Amino acid sequence: MIKAKEKPLNEVIDMVKDLKKVLIAGCDGCVTVCEAGGAKEAKVLAAALRLFFTQEGKKAEVDETSLTRQCNKDYLQELQDRIDNYDAVVSIACGCGVQFLAEMYPTKIVYPGVDTCFMGVTDERGVYSERCQACGRCILAETGGICPIARCSKRMLNGPCGGSERGKCEINPDVPCGWELIYERLKTLGQLDRFENPVAPKDWLTSRDGGPRKIVREEIQI
Amino acid sequence: MSTETPSRLQKMIKAGHFAVTSEVGPPRSADGAVIEQKANLIKDYVDAINVTDNQTSVCRLSSLAACIRIKLMGLEPVLQMVTRDRNRIALQSDILGAGSYGINNILCLTGDHQHFGDHPNCVNVFDLDSTQLIQTVRLMRDEGRLLGGHEFGARPQMFIGAAANPFAGPNVEMRVVRLAKKVAAGCQFVQTQCIYNMDTFKKFMKMVVDRGMHEKVAILAGITPMKNVGMAKYMQKRVPGIDVPDDIVKRMGGVPKENQPEEGIKLAVEQIEELKEVEGIRGFHIMAIEWEEKVPEIVEKIGLYPRPKIG
């Protein structure tokens, strides 16, 4: 899922400090799972902003809500009747949600309340780590189910580099060397031949390098 | 090593002599005279001079420009090229540029992460990795084609090299397989990481020889003389991928400070003498970091001066 983290409060305050009516919009999707932008966090952020306005002696209203998914127009539509009551919306969905909300309501100011970080997993509550960079052409079958693009700091397809030490990446001793993980897994699976064959340069066109991406599936379109 | 090029380094190896290479790190300014001064210090003692490419991710005068300067001095450069900063368009463009000046040696590297350098917040590229850069140079040289398919006439005549680090773990065996991958991609010579742990290195070389890989790739052993015990400790603790055993730190620290540089040279000479006897070693890459003036002394002491004359 998409992982995000809350923006520092001061940054959000800076966006809304001169406004009179603000809506905090959470999302019940990915950002709820990583506890950065769900209904609970919307409530906490709204309370913090109310406190700020009170302390500053400013009269301002802050409301909160949370939508099932901000990356879906049907759910964004739920705001249609009330969005004009607000000067701005602080969306604490991922960057996709923030943008889709702004797209849906083109005259409304929409601010981001979280920093969207990566696609990853929940190692344990409060600890998330990256697993996929959405390169658009999955190579996990060749690499023992561990992605070198997401897990190697140099996204090497023929790793590891000479900088790893004791199984750790040269950038940080807390980061496991992705290629050592791949090597060990391939060994366990009896597929070390995959490690030994040089992999040719990758076609990055399906990655971000090809420009903004789109999927059209006519067979399921209504 | 099958494809022959005009590289003097390749000819030296083919003739059965121990090759000697060293390196010049370009300055962090536009002062090209520094390159000439450093190259002049070592030119009669080495067969080829590596020029590092923004090493440790610190921005410096370009490797290609420095190599052209060395070539114009009538010397033999080894163009180090990392894939960190340039995509395949820029890399191939520079390889063609190097070819146009008759630069005949290239060392294909992935490069240190920019995290270490003076621009840690920059974008990294890594469109290719070191192995893919080897494949690319081979394609350009042997087939006269770019990765995009364009066929061209005048081909860059490159003796293709790469790095190998037997010490980076998790085990020596994997590092041998990793080298095999580079050899399969077209690598003809290798300059190793600085060797301090002789046991590990010999284990690595035995596995290389057992696979018959030493027949396909010329291995030049990497040597970096220690200036003092501080450097030994720093390399042991702080430099990723370098394995300095405790007895070397102890030995460097066991002599008075003023004698430590001399001890460091003595150690380097002993290491080379020992490595001469290791099967598969075809030469030495002496990386005297900011200590280029010591290279002649080392080469003389190991009995590899004067350098044989090769056409």
Would you give an account of this structure?
The complex is a heterodimer of chains A (222) and B (311). With 222 residues, chain A is α/β, with parallel strands linked by helices. Chain A has two domains: 2-118, Rossmann fold (3-Layer(aba) Sandwich), CATH 3.40.50.2300; 133-207, no CATH class. Chain A contains eight helices and nine strands. Chain A is elongated. Chain B has one domain (8-226, 261-301): TIM Barrel. Chain B contains eleven helices and eight strands. In chain B, helix 4 crosses helix 5 (130-143), helix 8 (229-237) packs antiparallel against helix 9 (246-253) and helix 10 packs across helix 11. The mean pLDDT of chain B is 96.
Question: TL;DR?
Answer:
With 222 residues, chain A is α/β, with parallel strands linked by helices.
Descriptive labels:
heterodimer; A: 222 residues; alpha/beta; Rossmann fold; 2 domains; 9 strands; B: 311 residues; TIM Barrel; eight-stranded parallel beta barrel; 11 helices; globular
What number is the mean pLDDT of chain B? 96
Shape descriptor of chain B reads: globular
CATH architecture of chain B: Alpha-Beta Barrel
Strand content of chain B: 5-15%
Helical residues, percent of chain B? 25-40%
Secondary-structure content class of chain A: alpha/beta
Name of the CATH class of chain B: Alpha Beta
What layout of secondary structure does this protein have?
The complex is a heterodimer of chains A (222) and B (311).
Chain A: E1 2-6, H1 9-16, E2 21-27, H2 30-33, H3 39-56, E3 61-67, H4 73-76, E4 88-91, H5 95-104, E5 109-112, E6 114-124, E7 127-132, H6 148-151, E8 168-169, E9 172-176, H7 178-189, H8 192-196
Parallel strand pairs in A: 2-3, 2-4, 4-5
Antiparallel strand pairs in A: 1-6, 6-7, 8-9
Chain B: H1 8-14, E1 19-24, H2 33-42, E2 48-51, H3 63-72, E3 77-82, H4 88-100, E4 105-109, H5 130-143, E5 159-164, H6 172-185, E6 189-194, H7 198-210, E7 218-223, H8 229-237, H9 246-253, H10 260-276, E8 281-286, H11 295-301
Parallel strand pairs in B: 1-2, 1-8, 2-3, 3-4, 4-5, 5-6, 6-7, 7-8
